[in-house]
Amino acid sequence: MSAAPQHAAPLDVQAVRKDFPILSDSFHGKPLVYFDTAASSQKPQVVIDALVDFYSHGYANIHRGLYALSVGATRSFEEARDKVRGFLNAADEREIVFVRNATEAINLVAMSWGRQEVGAGDEIVISAMEHHANIVPWQQLCAEKGAVLRVTPVDDRGELELDAYESLLSDRTKLVAITHVSNALGTINPAKQLVESAHAKGIPVLLDGAQAVPHMSVDVRDLDCDFYVFSGHKLFAPSGIGALYGKLGVLETMPPFMTGGEMIESVTFEKTTFKAPPGRFEAGTPDIAGAIGLGVAIDYLQELGMDAIAAWEHELLAYATARFEEIPGLRIIGTAREKAGVLSFVLDCAHPHDVATILDQEGVAVRAGHHCAQPIMDRFDVPATTRASLSLYNTREEVDVLVAAIGKVTELFG
Ligand code: PMP
Fold first, then answer.
1. CA angle 165-88-180, nearest 5°?
2. Ligand 1 contact, 37 CB (< 6 A)
3. How far is Cα 355 from Cα 146, in angstroms, rounded to an integer?
4. What does the pLDDT look like over 186-199, one tens digit per residue?
C-alpha cells in the first residue's frame, strides 16, 4: 500500500507514551498496562486539548451561522474532513461522510445503497471473520430483500480461503463486504487482491477498516475499494465520530440514509430536495468537536508516521508471539502470516473471563469474550478468547508484565 508522506524516523515509544496522560495512571495499585486498543484507543494530550480549546473558545453550530464563531467552527469541521480525505488518500473531500462510527457507516451503505441495489435472489459476500457490525446489517438487508448472504471461509491459521472467495463471486453477487483487518484474529486480509477479483466481475467492495487505520497506512485509491469505513475512537480520536469513504460517483447515486435538517437543499410541504454528498448523508447536527478531534488525531499519527507505527507494532507482535509460545497450555487463536497487533488466546486451565479478571488485578487491561465476532469463535470451536491488542504506545516491558500475569493465572488454575 502506498503511504501518505511519512517521517522516516523509527517510533520513539517512550516519547509517545508521554503524550498519553492515562498511561501514567495506576489501577489496583499497579501501573496501567493497556492492551485493549482494538476495543478503543487511549487519547493523546493534543486531542484532549483540541476538545477543551474548541469547547472553551471555538464552539458554535456549523454550516448555518453568519457570525465569526460559527464560520470558524465550520472551517475547522471541514478542515477535519479534508484531513480524513488526506489520511485515506481519497481524491475528493466530498467522498468523506462523517458518521458516528464504523457501525453507522456500514448501516448507511446497507440502508441507502443496499436497499436501492439489492433485490431478491441477489447475493452479498462477507467472510467468516467479520465483526457483527459487518454481518448483521447485511443479514437484515438480505432478509428484507430476499437476498442471500454468502460467507467466505477461513482456514486454521485464520486466513481467508481465497479459492473459495473467488468461487463465491458470481453474477448474482451485488456486493463484497469484508474486513481489512480482523479484530478477533488480527489477520490482515489481502484487500487489494480481494477488490481486484470482485471488480473483475463488476462487483463493488466495502472494506471495514476499523482495525486497519490505527495500524497501517491506507490508500483507498490504491485499494480501489468502493467504500471504506472506520471509527475515530479506535484511532486515538474521541468516541462518537467516524467516517465513511465512498467513491463520489457511487455516493451521488445513493438516496439519503436519514432525513431532516442539514441534509436538504430546499423543503416545502409538497417536496424536499437533498444536498449533494456528503451533506446528503449528514442529517442533523454532527459531532463537531469529535470531527475536529479526529483531525488532530490524524495530524498526530501522520507526524509519527504510519509506517513507523506499523514497524514498531510488527516488532512488538513478534516479541509477544514468541513469549506466548513459551507458555504451556496457551493456544493463540489466529496465526495468519500477515497479522496486525492482536493476540487472541485461550488457556487450557482457565476461562477467558477469569483470565481477564486476574490480569486486571495486575493492572493489565485486556478484553475477554467473543469480540462481537461470534461466528469466528464458532469456527475455532471456542466460546471466547482473551485478547491482548497492541498499539503504538505499548512496550516489550509491558508484554513481560502481561506474560508474568498470565503465569499467575496458570499458577492459580493450572
Ligand atoms: N469492525 C471491526 C473490525 C471492529 O473491530 C469494530 C469494533 N470492535 C467495528 C467494526 C465496530 O466499530 P464501532 O463499534 O466503533 O462501530
1. 25
2. no
3. 43
4. 999 999 999 999 99
Contact 189, 177 (CB under 8 A): no
d(CA 376, CA 371): 10
372 is catalytic: yes
DSSP secondary structure of 112-141: IIIHHH--TT-EEEEETT--GGGTHHHHHH
| Residue 390 near residue 402 (C-beta atoms within 8 A) | no
Residue with the three cell numbers 448501516: 107
DSSP assignments along 353-372, one per residue: HHHHHHHHHTTEE-EEE-TT
Q: What nine digits make up the cell of 344?
A: 487472541
Distance (Å) of CA 71 to CA 59, 66, 291, 292: 10, 6, 16, 14
Phi-psi region of 403 (alpha: psi -120 to 50; beta: other; left: phi over 0): alpha
User: In the chain, what's the furthest Cα-to-Cα distance?
Assistant: 72
Angle at 73 between CA 67 and CA 77, to 5 degrees: 145
Evaluate whether 323 touches 35 at the Cβ level (below 8 Å): no
- CA contacts within 13 A on the Cβ side of 10: 7
Write out the three cell numbers for 256: 439519503
If you measure from the C-alpha of residue 179 to the centroid of ligand 1, how many angstroms do you get, rounded to a whole number? 10
- In this structure, the number of other CB atoms found within 10 A of the CB of residue 119 comes to 11
Nearest to 410 by CA among 371, 363, 354, 343: 354
Which atom number of ligand 1 is nearest to the Cα of residue 133? 10
**Tens digits of residue pLDDT in 136-162:** 999 999 999 999 999 999 999 999 999
CA distance 130 to 362: 31
Give the C-alpha separation, 325 to 332, whole Å. Answer: 8
Cell of 150: 454468502
Reduced to 3 states (helix: H, G, I; strand: E, B; else coil), residue 204 is coil
Minimum-distance ligand 1 atom for the alpha carbon of 234: 15
Structural domains of the chain, ranges and CATH numbers in brackets:
13-31+306-413 (3.90.1150.10), 48-302 (3.40.640.10)
pTM of the model: 0.97
